[in-house]
Amino acid sequence: MPPNVKRAVPLSGECDCGQEHDPDHVHEHDHGLAAAPAGSRWHGLGWAYPKDRDKGLFATVDGWLADRRRMDGAEGLWRVEDNLYDLTPFMERHPGGRQWLELTKGIDVTELFFSHHISETAEALLPKFLVRPAAAPRNSPFTFHRDGFYMQLRERVRKTYENIPKQVLRDAEQRSENIVDALAVSSLLACFLAVRFGSYLMGGVAGLLLSLTCSGAHNFFHKRQNWRRYYFELSFMSSREWMVSHAMSHHVFPNTFQDLEVTFFEPLVAFLPYPHKNVAVRYLSWGYCAVLYAVLGHGQFLKRLQSLSLAWTDAVALAVPAAMLLSGAPLWDLWLMWTWVLVVSSLYFAMQGLSAGHHHPDNYHEGDALGADNDYGLMQLAATGNCTGLRGRESLFFSLTHFGDHRLHHLFPAVDHAVLPFLEAALAEHMIQYRLKAAPMTTWEALKGKYLQMARTTPNWRPPINLHQ
């Protein structure tokens, strides 16, 4: 594990190494990666390596969950920090729905627990389900010190959130629901019109609308149980899989070995700064990555089919050809148009999703120096670019459909995108208190940075965020 670089402290504090630091000078203890183990695996954070990720494109969410159950020391229960809990009696009462607890049984849910529960209710209930202390140390390197950056930010955000009138919150969330509902209806109508008039241009519009619908549906993965998350199935992808690969994996472990949204593109596209990337992976991937993006929906469906992990929710995808059938078009024309719509949808969804600001050479990727006591919140800021191109304050529509307000969304994913703007001031004040700066990144910079990151082979030895400005 990289050594702590600088302990993040408020303005009145000092680095826990007891030294004054010149922010433009890298000290000997400011950099250092764990030595690469024997073989080709290259470790940066020193946690147990998830074996299933060696399958790359063919890795699965169930394989990842099995690895987590093997490595996390949860002993078939639910682990939060160093204690084990039996949440089985709470399954039917869980506000997020029973499925979350079914998926997370047997793993360490520390990151999920703190990031998805802002109110004090969950922490107050948790001791009722305590079984015993965990025998093994936590596999995750990320910390949640009560006086640390993230937990203090969480407390500040909680107070801000509780001061927002409930009707204001409800009205904001209703706007999100209305937008996603309108997008779903519009995409199905566009699919019907595309086949009715034999227009592949209209089919492209339908694919774009379907992509925006799926991005909006993603807002509901993290929240209380809400049927709108099933709009995601219209794309041939699976909300259950994305609850794991996106919410449980990417959101809490961005740009690391545990990030399935990195794993699923390897070895053809490598976002981590591996020292031995070949020329094809570094540069030719700039072109052929678009092919991988375009078959995302079909590819994920085939993986579920091959592993016999289809669920009843996969039938939701049939709403698209059902809308096309109403046009009376021949089945061959319908199949061709459906394929075209899914290709356009997958291409746009992946292009804008992977360019939301994560994959930029200035952002943290496993192998880079992290430091800052491995605080969970600082890791999220380091791995999530401050992309200001499409923000919720200017347009809730763009925020919902283009992963706007991305820093806050990663820090507090259970908060609706329509509510996140209310929390911006709390984050800004907290960052000032801790002397943190996050330079804004335009959409173009984020897009260009993604390709530069795909070619990067040299780890950053300085932490992405300078803690002492």
UniProtKB/TrEMBL annotation:
The keyword Heme applies. Keywords: Heme, Iron, Membrane, Metal-binding, Transmembrane, Transmembrane helix. Coiled coil: none annotated. The keyword Transmembrane applies. SMART domains: Cyt-b5. It comes from the Eukaryota. The chain crosses the membrane at residues 201-221. GO terms for molecular function: heme binding; metal ion binding. Residues 69-135 form the Cytochrome b5 heme-binding domain. InterPro entries: Cyt_B5-like_heme/steroid-bd, Cyt_B5-like_heme/steroid_sf, Cyt_B5_heme-BS, Cytochrome_b5-related. Belongs to the cytochrome b5 family. This is Cytochrome b5-related protein-like.
